[in-house]
Amino acid sequence: MVTEIAVLTINVGQEELFEAAFPSAAAVLGSADGYLSHELHRSIETPNRFTLLVRWESVEHHTKGFRETPRFAEWRGHIGAFFASAPQMEHAIRVV
Predict the structure, then answer these.
(1) Which of 6, 50, 64, 75 has its CA 20 to 30 A from that of 23?
(2) d(CA 43, CA 36)
């Protein structure tokens, strides 16, 4: 199992709209092969910054099985307009 860590900076003033739109994007995400679970967290110090944690069976399930498919464009279509900048993303494995 790997965790995708994506930091999403949302246009100021659109945070609640983003939160309202996110369940539709999450439904697309949840339909992907290799998807296990996700969590969305909102920063206290920087309220327009969200951290999305997505658990995948493997990096390839995320990169090949989701990002390189039409599902990714569909996912982005639900929430991409709220992004103030390109999301910062990396993969991690649990060590403890």
Answers:
(1) 64
(2) 23
